[in-house]
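Regression test case RT-17, inverse folding.

Input:
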């Protein structure tokens, strides 16, 4: 064999791999379009405990035929706060089980005469949206069928172009020599499997190549199992790449995927050869052959089935064992990805009501109160992002700050929704008059806190539009808005102090004083603005952006005072009930 023969084999092999991967991609994308939206909703909701998280990860991955898509979604959901880290780890464990369906599909494709029905299947799928019915769902189903057919074609190509090692003594001898190193052989092929998966970026293609190698008798069950273990480790790379731009929680979810597969492989190595014997026994038992507990006696024809059983066994058993150690996994990834105090404040996490609803109404109210205190602190932090928008030196700095505000706006929306739902459920219980009033006040508070967040986001969007349209304020206008920002900050500080008074003490006079200062300065700015427009001091674009900004700051002041007033109503009612002769001591 000369160099040109080797190059030709590599080109053919690469082409077959590309066809196979393209088919898998089409198939997965078609399924994702049919069920992707539902799958995302399921991922976000059905992960309240480890068992449900694992079942969800299994079902979603089996449905969309892509563990990569599942893990990338998990990383993004953890990054945005929709999923907790423990829920994400459970889903990732389930995704490892779900991906075993792919290996069974490949095995089925290898063992069937795909060429007899693939072309008619693809032709039907292409014609269906035009002949039978129209619609996005039909097109997506057709895309799935085309992808499935293309994947089978690619699989057939892989089988056809795989070089016959029997004709190449040097290669076969080198492979056999590597097989005589005991455990070092297994470790070597784990590394090869991981590197091959990283290189191809398709674990399904590595699985297909491995099955073809075993079907031809060129590698045994033990080496094939090692490659599959390496493939499981290599496939974690995609999630870790996706997590590079994520926050610490997203990075932790990706690291957890890697640690889980590494630990699973280490556990398997402890019982590797007995497990190989068991897998060989199961493969022979499944086909009605003379079952023996010796993988070295396994017929070549049964090795592809055995390796598919191993892939499933490996992921299912590891998940069963390691799901009991999710808290320990969290400690490990916490150590791997330390979180700064500042970033920890940026994470969406309900600390006091996430544990669920209790039968004691007072405890529920106290838990909600603590969440509201945290909500208030987040709003104050969100407000601190506004000044950097004005002083940003370049687009990159501006966009980074804008992204933080957008993230906090999403957090405020979810906090308002979840706290309100919890309070509504609390209100349905048998509450005292004081308890009912506190819940009512809390509902009003979270509504206004969310409105403050919305207003901050509106100010940020106004700044963004101003920047994109090249509208510039002079030093005087910037100074006016800076002073307005200071006044609103003072009002927010008073509001936060009142929120943290546990509905027992409140400084309403300070709240009204801060709100009046905002209103008075707004009136001053509005009068100056109207005079400036009459005199033509600045054009309409500048004036429109300027008036929009100071009006939004004043609007924020209204929401801020609403929070303190809601607390005051609750405090006054509590005092009235406490002074009542019929009140309980």
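Golden output:
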């Amino acid at each position: 064999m000369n160099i040109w023969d080797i190059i030709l084999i590599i080109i053919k092999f690469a082409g077959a791999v590309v066809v196979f991967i393209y088919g898998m991609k089409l198939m997965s994308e078609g399924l994702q379009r049919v069920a992707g939206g539902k799958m995302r909703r399921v991922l976000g909701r059905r992960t309240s405990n480890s068992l449900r998280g694992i079942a969800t990860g299994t079902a979603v991955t089996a449905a969309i035929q892509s563990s990569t898509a599942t893990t990338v979604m998990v990383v993004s959901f953890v990054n945005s706060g929709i999923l907790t880290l423990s829920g994400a780890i459970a889903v990732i464990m389930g995704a490892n089980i779900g991906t075993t369906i792919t290996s069974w599909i490949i095995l089925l494709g290898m063992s069937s005469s795909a060429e007899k029905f693939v072309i008619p299947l693809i032709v039907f799928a292409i014609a269906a949206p035009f002949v039978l019915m129209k619609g996005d769902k039909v097109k997506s189903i057709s895309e799935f069928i085309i992808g499935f057919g293309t994947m089978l074609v690619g699989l057939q190509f892989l089988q056809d172009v795989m070089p016959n090692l029997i004709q190449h003594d040097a290669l076969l001898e080198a492979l056999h020599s590597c097989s005589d190193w005991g455990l070092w052989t297994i470790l070597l092929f784990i590394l090869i499997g991981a590197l091959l998966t990283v290189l191809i970026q398709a674990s399904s293609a590595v699985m297909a190549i491995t099955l073809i190698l075993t079907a031809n008798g060129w590698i045994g069950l033990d080496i094939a199992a090692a490659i599959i273990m390496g493939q499981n480790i290599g496939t974690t790379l995609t999630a870790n790449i996706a997590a590079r731009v994520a926050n610490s929680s997203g990075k932790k979810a990706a690291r957890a995927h890697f640690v889980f597969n590494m630990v699973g492989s280490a556990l398997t190595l402890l019982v590797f050869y007995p497990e190989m014997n068991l897998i060989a026994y199961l493969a022979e038992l499944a086909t009605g052959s003379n079952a023996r507990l010796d993988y070295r006696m396994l017929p070549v024809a049964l090795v592809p089935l055995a390796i598919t059983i191993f892939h499933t066994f490996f992921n299912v058993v590891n998940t069963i064992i390691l799901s009991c150690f999710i808290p320990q996994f969290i400690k490990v990834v916490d150590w791997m990805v330390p979180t700064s105090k500042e970033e920890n404040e940026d994470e969406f996490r309900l600390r006091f009501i996430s544990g669920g609803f209790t039968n004691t109404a007072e405890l529920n109210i106290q838990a909600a109160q603590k969440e509201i205190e945290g909500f208030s602190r987040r709003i104050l932090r969100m407000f601190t992002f506004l000044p950097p928008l004005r002083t940003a030196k370049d687009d990159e700095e501006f966009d980074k700050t804008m992204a933080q505000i957008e993230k906090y706006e999403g957090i405020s929306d979810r906090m308002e929704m979840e706290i309100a739902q919890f309070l509504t459920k609390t209100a349905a219980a048998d509450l005292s008059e004081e308890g009912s009033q506190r819940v009512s006040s809390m509902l009003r508070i979270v509504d206004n806190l969310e409105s403050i967040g919305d207003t901050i986001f509106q100010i940020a969007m106004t700044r963004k539009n101003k920047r994109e349209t090249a509208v510039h304020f002079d030093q005087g206008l910037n100074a006016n808005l800076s002073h307005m920002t200071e006044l609103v900050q003072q009002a927010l500080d008073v509001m936060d102090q009142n929120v943290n008074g546990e509905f027992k003490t409140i400084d309403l006079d300070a709240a009204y004083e801060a709100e009046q200062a905002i209103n008075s300065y707004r009136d001053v700015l509005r009068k100056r603005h109207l005079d400036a427009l009459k005199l033509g001091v600045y054009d309409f674009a500048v004036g429109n952006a300027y008036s929009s900004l100071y009006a939004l700051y004043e609007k924020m002041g209204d929401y801020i005072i609403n929070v303190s007033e809601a607390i005051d109503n609750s405090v006054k009612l509590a005092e009235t009930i406490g002074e009542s002769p019929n009140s309980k001591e």
